[in-house]
From TrEMBL, chains A, B:
Pfam families named among the record's database cross-references: FA_synthesis
InterPro entries according to UniProt: FA_synthesis (IPR003664), Phospholipid_synth_PlsX-like (IPR012281)
Keyword Lipid biosynthesis tagged: yes
Role this protein plays: Catalyzes the reversible formation of acyl-phosphate (acyl-PO(4)) from acyl-[acyl-carrier-protein] (acyl-ACP). This enzyme utilizes acyl-ACP as fatty acyl donor, but not acyl-CoA.
Keywords linked to the UniProt accession: Acyltransferase, Cytoplasm, Lipid biosynthesis, Lipid metabolism, Phospholipid biosynthesis, Phospholipid metabolism, Transferase
Broad class of the protein's primary localization: cytoplasm
Annotated pathway: Lipid metabolism; phospholipid metabolism
Organism: Chimaeribacter coloradensis
GO molecular function per UniProt: phosphate:acyl-[acyl carrier protein] acyltransferase activity
Protein name per its UniProtKB record: Phosphate acyltransferase
Record SUPFAM superfamilies: Isocitrate/Isopropylmalate dehydrogenase-like (SSF53659)
GO CC terms, sorted: cytoplasm
Catalytic activity: a fatty acyl-[ACP] + phosphate = an acyl phosphate + holo-[ACP]
PANTHER family: FATTY ACID/PHOSPHOLIPID SYNTHESIS PROTEIN PLSX, PHOSPHATE ACYLTRANSFERASE
Length: 344, 344
């Protein structure tokens, strides 16, 4: 792997530097070609850099930032007051070519808006979309978008998402001629709101897209499609619902049962078997696929879950590494040129 | 329990009489005060009535219907051509007072539209909503609506759903002063689309509603609220996503693992543990809470899942029994009068 530099907004997310800095050190340790620019308050960062291996420290630089965008700030206000914030500086480092991609666990709306202002959308894209690779039952992954960047989407946006998702599936997941579906409340053509039915009509007559029709929520993890497209409101609620259910199951598996006293050997056997079962569900654990990619920009931007723990934030850094290496923005730009109608 | 008669559209759903008739017999057997009117094609029904206990047969009557509304029919067309269909006749039996409630596993849009035409909405309700009682982590139930009756909802409809949901939680689940939340993509006030933020503003200043704010998808099963309100598109996708994930887990639990050969005692222990775990998840099994109630009508209408099996359809019948016994429509009407703004 060639040398690669990423900029991190270490102040964002529910836990700030206490999670993002240890995760950065973890990523640096496991990836010897990686360099990281940690953007944030140096005083908040430095306590977590004590006793860091010197060979790792040489590949890390702290970039001071004066302010942090609050998680509950209204995006429009946050963007106006963004100068000097850790999120904006991280994006500007990408714009200036100092970094090839950036990661933030901060305010999603602000990240989306600032990324548009600083990095600009690709030619032919109205609004970027948040995308993730969801592991599914067939032991491969589904590209799902939008996950919350756009609360409401018209049919044109949904079609653009479908194109970007297909490029991701082909170039990053490695699926030739990937299947593309729209998330809807029924599989029949007559179902759902106008914007989805209009997008379906366009996708059906787009020869470069392998459009397979509507899928319902229960097919999210079945692997029936390689790309699943929806608006950001539905995508966000759906993904969080799925995560909530999975976490509930994993916690039930790990909990100690009804509270009745049991013989020691039953407890031991139970624990051993529970571990085995939990292992079989492990690939569905939300911590393992943290990191949504903001697609449609002239640069790589990864949004980490705000509540991400160290392991999950490290996964988001790894996602950024992959997106940069696979040249996702460049490949999307090339495909868009071939697929989208020319403006005239 | 007093004598109670329900009308069943036995032709609806993916499996028709092969599921609905055996489920009816099961319900009759377990509920000696229940009478059922089976509406459908007598030739399709009668094979499933062979060898039925005579004491059960006396509480069952077949009402002939000439046609069936197709599951994929466009609701507007289906309603125009509905005369003589099993779904319409079942609703008319309620209208005429022959039955106190009805159940169908057929086309949701058509059922919603026909119920509005035949039974009429309650005073003050624009559009009925599909509601279900979802079991949650705290071993109680959350009232969730709308689950698909209304693809798009304005803020007024969401407020009406909140009122109806609160009545359900109080009267049927038995929760005094139930907590009411709106499903959204963040907990901060600034999050989400206009209709949700407007509904939040109204609910906040409605003293008879215990409004607690926004909840996200991951809180669907945590029991943080007693009533969860959303539009029908999001509700449908969310519920199906949840069901899909739960079914995936239950199937993984029951599957035999990676296919490696195992010692007999490992297999035995594995089976034993799987049973224990499955038991702890049992209350979340979708088959156990099938049956969504169409709230806001002058009568009880239960929509069963189209893919319901015999057990699940019997649960839907039981839901109808409960709704009639608890006088859900009457109680909602009374509460609406007190809560909703008078039209002047």
């Amino acid at each position: 792997m060639a040398r690669l530099t990423l900029a991190l907004d270490v102040m964002g997310g529910d836990f700030g530097p206490s999670v993002t800095v240890p995760a950065s050190l973890q990523a640096l340790a496991s990836n010897p070609e990686l360099n990281l620019l940690l953007v944030g308050d140096p005083d908040a960062i430095s306590p977590y850099l004590n006793r860091t291996d010197p060979s790792v420290m040489t590949r890390l630089r702290v970039i001071p930032a004066e302010s942090v965008i609050a998680g509950d700030a209204r995006p429009s206000q946050a963007i106006r007051a963004s100068r000097g914030s850790s999120m904006r500086i991280a994006l500007e480092l990408v714009k200036q070519g100092e970094a090839q991609g950036c990661i933030s666990a901060g305010n999603t709306g602000a990240l989306m808006g600032l990324a548009k202002v600083v990095l600009k959308p690709l030619e032919g894209i109205e609004r970027p979309a948040l995308m993730t690779l969801l592991p599914h039952q067939q032991r491969n992954r589904t590209v799902v978008l939008d996950l919350g960047a756009n609360v409401a989407c018209d049919s044109t946006m949904l079609v653009q998402f479908a194109v970007m998702g297909a490029v991701m599936a082909e170039e990053v997941v490695g699926i030739p001629d990937p299947r593309v579906a729209l998330l809807n409340i029924g599989e029949e053509e007559t179902k759902g709101p106008d914007n989805i039915r209009e997008a379906a009509a366009v996708l059906k007559r787009t020869p470069t897209i392998n459009y397979i029709g509507y899928l319902e929520g229960n097919d999210l993890l079945t692997g029936k499609t390689d790309v699943l497209v929806c608006d950001g409101f539905v995508g966000n609620v759906t993904l969080k619902t799925m995560e909530g259910v999975i976490r509930l199951f994993l916690s039930l598996l790990n909990s100690s049962g009804e509270g009745k006293k049991k013989a020691w050997w039953v407890m031991l056997l139970g624990k051993w078997l529970q571990k085995r079962v939990a292992k079989r569900f492990g690939h569905l654990n939300p911590d393992q696929y943290n990191g949504a990619c903001l697609l449609g920009l002239r640069g790589t931007v990864i949004k980490s879950h705000g509540a991400a723990n160290q392991r999950a934030f490290a996964v988001a850094i790894e996602q950024a590494v992959q997106a940069v290496q696979r040249q996702v923005p460049e490949r999307i730009a090339a495909r868009l040129e071939a697929v989208l109608p020319k403006s005239d």
